[in-house]
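<context>
A single protein, sequence plus fold
<entry> Chain with its tokenised backbone below
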Amino acid sequence: MNTVLYFALQIVLTIVIVGLIVGYLRPFLKRILVDLCGAEERAQFWTAFSNILLFGLPLLFSLNFHPAAENNEELIFEIAGKISGNLGALLFALIGVGVFVSFFALFAPRTPKAEAK
């Protein structure tokens, strides 16, 4: 197998893994953002922004793959190491989104909900 196919394979695997994780988190993030933003339109913007960040950073890391291995066995381990780094970028982006959401959850002014009687 040539190195271009390995390059494409690690990009596709990164996109699939990140897509599954972001797809899992999307409904939870959207509910939190609707609560924090107070309007569906604002929450949609911040959800889209978060999705772009969560997809973009790992994809950016995945484009920096230059296989140097001599044989297929070494390339497999090189791809696994690169995907590990790409997922680290996803976690870094996720922590960043979490810090911003947590900050606004703690300090954003919200109207008090009416108490149920």
